[in-house]
UniProtKB/TrEMBL annotation:
Species classification: Bacteria, Pseudomonadati, Pseudomonadota, Gammaproteobacteria, Methylococcales
Active site: 34 (thioimide intermediate), 41 (proton donor)
Pfam families xrefs: QueF
GO biological process: tRNA queuosine(34) biosynthetic process
Residues that, per the record, bind substrate: 56-58, 75-76
Keyword NADP: yes
Official protein name in the record: NADPH-dependent 7-cyano-7-deazaguanine reductase
Reactions that this protein is recorded to catalyse: 7-aminomethyl-7-carbaguanine + 2 NADP(+) = 7-cyano-7-carbaguanine + 2 NADPH + 3 H(+)
GO cellular component terms, semicolon-separated: cytoplasm
InterPro entries: GTP-CH-I_C/QueF, NADPH_dep_7-cyano-7-deazaG_red, QueF, QueF_type1
Gene this protein is translated from: queF
EC number in record: 1.7.1.13
Gene3D superfamilies referenced in this protein's UniProt entry, alphabetically: 3.30.1130.10
C-alpha cells in the first residue's frame, strides 16, 4: 500500500499572516471504534480555523484522520484529541472541531470543541442587507 495512516501532522507557512481569514475543512469519512463494543463509529469532522503563522497541510491531515480507524475512542475524547493535536502543530488564532457522529442505537452525537489564542480578538461580522 503506497500510503499509510500517520499521527504526524505537517504545516506550511501561512501565505497571508497579516489577515484574519477562516479555513473550513469538511472530512466526511472519519472512522474510529467504539471502546465498549469494538464496532465502528462513523462521523463527519468539520474543522474551522483562523491561522496565525502556520496552516495545516491537507495530505498529512488525511493520513492523521485515517490513523484513528482502528483505535477505540469515546466521541468526546477523540474530538478533543484531534483539536489538541491540530492546535499543537499549527498554533492558530482560533480553531473549532465539530464531530457529527452517525446514528448508533437511535442516538446522534455531536461534539464541538474549540480553542482561542489568549491575545486574539475576532473581527466584528459584517451584516449585509
Amino acid at each position: 500500500m503506497p500510503s499509510q495512516p500517520s499521527k504526524t501532522l505537517e504545516t506550511f507557512d501561512n501565505p497571508r499572516p497579516d489577515h484574519d481569514y477562516t479555513i473550513r475543512i469538511e472530512i466526511p469519512e472519519f472512522t474510529c471504534l467504539c471502546p465498549k463494543t469494538g464496532q465502528p463509529d462513523f462521523a463527519t469532522i468539520l474543522l474551522e480555523y483562523v491561522p496565525d503563522r502556520q496552516c495545516i497541510e491537507l495530505r498529512s491531515l488525511k493520513m492523521y484522520i485515517w490513523s484513528f480507524r482502528d483505535e477505540g475512542a469515546f466521541h468526546e475524547a477523540v474530538t478533543n484529541t484531534i483539536l489538541d493535536d491540530l492546535v499543537t502543530v499549527s498554533r492558530p488564532r482560533f480553531m473549532r472541531v465539530t464531530a457529527r457522529f452517525n446514528v448508533r442505537g437511535g442516538i446522534y452525537t455531536t461534539v464541538v470543541a474549540e480553542r482561542r489564542a489568549p491575545d486574539w480578538e475576532p473581527t466584528t461580522p459584517v451584516a449585509l442587507p
